[in-house]
Amino acid sequence: MVRPISNDTSSDIHQENDAPLEFIGDIDSSLEIPDGADILIVSKDQSYLTHGIHKFPAKFFPELPRYLIQRYSEVNDTILDPMCGSGTTILEAALCRRKSIGIDIDSIARLITHVKTTPIDPAILENIITSLTQQIQKYSLSSEYHPEIPVFNYRDNWFRPHVLSELCIIRDCIESLPEVHDVYSVHEWSDIRDFFRIAMSSIIRDVSNADPHCTRTVLRKKVIKKIDPGDTISKFLVALFEQAKAMKDLWSVYSSMKNWEVSIPEGTATNTGLTDASVDLVVTSPPYINAVDYPRTHQLEMYWLGFLGDESLSTVKRKYIGTETVYKREYSELSVSGLDSLDPVLKEIFKQDPRRSFITYMFFRDMETQLRETMRVLKPGGRYCIAIGSNLIRGVQVKSHEILSEISTVNVGFELERTFFSKLIRHFIRIPRKERMLGEWILILKKPS
Fold it and tell me: What angle do CA 269, 406, 84 make, to 5 degrees?
């Protein structure tokens, strides 16, 4: 069960003069946030249960989707996040006793969401962790163990030899788990292996040579990390035990609930594969234009988990909403949308950077497709809650919330009920200072009844 929410909001909300409405922790779902208001959430739950099992750029504070879910849906309703990222909305929907559906084109996002929302019996997990730890220690001491190190671009620049070896030990021990334990169903083993894969994935950036403070995976000459032999295995075991504790807490909550229905189907934000009028509420946060390159951010994890297959990173990147992988022929001329709020922006950016202008155009074109898909799957009267940040691109202000408001109401047919601004305190996202976002606009859209 989600943490209890007090009906008395006087001690949880603070406001002085023109300052934003400040919420310490949960927002009472009976409160209607005024149209145009500024709010500030001081989050208490960023690591609650399994929310903190893996870093992910631009994550929701759990309190925001929790409020939106409780205010705009009922128990047993179906909640969709079509760009679910690390699964914050999906976990919160399940905790609120809703049926939740998470869709994301990003393979790392889907795996994190799956693990975060799949309770595992801690007794089973404890036994397997003991065996896994023993197997890792055995391999690390063996002179006869010669791991097959994966081949990927610039591998030896990203990782030191002893780190590569230790990651291989961890990976091989995880993948050989069914040979150690064969008493559980295939389904249970899949869930258990995924739990261990996420534990491994969570340390890959830390033990690489990549700059730990940059969202994108980059090497910097000034950043020299101290990673001694044995550190990689030690970090994995620490992460494993911390995540096992989080899973134990999740299991405790899950065990007290009567229903827990989570699905992470194949699909994309623009083609969910869901049936018409099957969803009661949609809550999501689209990617930021010009800010987070998710495939590049997760490239090391995808290499180690085998998610790229035979595809190049650039090929994968072109499939994402907000992609920066575009061809020169595509932006040789100005692309326009016919939108009053967008076309002047596209023209101004084009004067300085035709490529960035086309990337911006593509983002909103794809978002219109996504809005139409959401309109299709929503039940009449259902709401679509979008958290979207504005951007500064080549010195040009891109007011994404105003542009999406025009697209959703004029082109797609949503009703715009209200908007409010959620200020940021801190985020796992480093953006150049001039283009840094101060928060996100929340749009509450309604499908006509």
Answer: 20
What dihedral do alpha carbons 158, 163, 165, 168 form, nearest 10°? -80
pLDDT tens digits, one per residue of 230-286: 999 999 999 999 999 999 999 999 999 988 999 999 999 999 999 999 999 999 999
Asked if residues 173 and 132 have their Cβ atoms less than 8 Å apart, the reply is yes
pLDDT tens-digit readout, 90-133 = 999 999 999 999 999 999 999 999 999 999 999 989 989 999 99
Yes or no: say if 360 and 260 are a contact pair by the CB < 8 Å rule. no
CB within 8 A of 389, min separation 6: which ones? Answer: 288, 291, 400, 437, 439, 440, 441
Q: What range does the domain containing 396 cover?
A: 13-118+260-446
| Interval 311-340: pLDDT, tens | 666 666 667 776 777 888 989 999 999 999
Q: For 397-419, what is each residue's pLDDT tens digit?
A: 999 999 999 999 999 999 999 99
Question: Which 3-state string (H, E, C) describes 94-126?
Answer: HHCCCEEEECCCCHHHHHHHHHHCCCCCHHHHH
The reply to whether 273 and 400 lie within a common domain is yes
Q: Of 217, 233, 255, which residue is a domain's last?
A: 255
CA 80 – CA 236 distance, rounded (Å) = 32
The CATH number of the domain holding residue 351 is 3.40.50.150
Q: Which residue has the tokens 């069960």?
A: 1
Of the residues 212, 230, 255, the one at which a domain ends: 255
| Residue 7 falls inside a structural domain | no
Burial status of residue 6 (CB atoms within 10 A of its CB: 0-12, 13-18, 19 or more): exposed
Within-domain flag for 71: yes
pTM as predicted? 0.89
- Give the Å distances, CA to CA, from 159 to 83, 169, 202, 205, 349: 31, 15, 15, 10, 38
- The Cβ of residue 204 has, within 10 Å, a number of other Cβ atoms equal to 25
Look at residues 431, 361, 356, 343 and name the one whose alpha carbon lies nearest to residue 394.
356
